[in-house]
Amino acid sequence: MIERYDWLLFDADDTLFHFDGSLGLEALFNSFDAVFTPDDFKQFQTLNKPLWDQYAQGLVTADEVQIRRFVPLAQRFGVTAEQLNSDFIDAMAELCEPLPGALNLVHALSERVQLGIITNGFTELQDRRMRRVGFDRHFDLLVISEQVGVAKPHLDIFEHAFARMNNPARERILMVGDNLHTDVAGGRNAGIDTCWLNHHGKAAPAELQPTYEVSNLLQLHQLLLGAA
Ligand SMILES: [Mg+2]
After folding, report:
1. Ion ligand 1: residues, CB < 5 A
2. Whole-model pTM?
3. Is 11 a catalytic residue?
4. Consecutive 10-residue runs of the chain (228 residues): their mean pLDDT?
5. Centre of ligand 1 from the C-alpha of residue 228, in Å
6. Are 190 and 109 in the same domain?
7. Would you list the DSSP string of 21-73?
8. Are 78 and 103 found together in one domain?
9. How far, in Å, is the centroid of ligand 1 from the Cα of 14?
């Protein structure tokens, strides 16, 4: 049913790219000759996750997320939080992997529709990942919340994307993402169709029902284009 759409907008992390912060942190710890334990990851997430939620709500800036999450570790390792954040992004760029089916799907779709990304991730990592997997050649649009100044699900980041797409008809746009609260809620609120990449078989509440739901990118490929 790809004929229904002129534009497909994708989220990046855990939609096109596998994002495992614990691998990046482990590389960081190793560079300081420190052993990385599950407890270290838990402690980091205790700080990191709420910061991301606050960022999506517009309560903290991208800079604040990037720095504040590394303050305790910076003290432990005797370096600045800025340095740790930068090392972490380097590690994540090195470790980045497209999700199973992502390369095929993007290649096939790029011959049929225009493709964009709207991500709440950070600029430095996006550009490097796009080039690393060759997506820079296939995507017509990359919208990064850090650059726009507001994050998904805020309407403004979608309006910003639509303007850069020359305002196509909204019913000809589909937003695909793994996060109900940023991707699906944001897309619905912006008046476009949504597809929830529901990796963990959760149930969507009534007010956040996506237009479509799939559990992986192979299913999405099947839904949009027929057999992969
Ligand atoms: Mg995501």
Report:
1. 11, 13-14, 178-179
2. 0.91
3. yes
4. 96 94 95 97 97 94 96 97 95 92 96 97 90 93 95 97 98 98 98 98 96 98 88
5. 23
6. yes
7. HHHHHHHHHHHTT----HHHHHHHHHHHHHHHHHHHTTSS-HHHHHHHTTHHH
8. no
9. 5
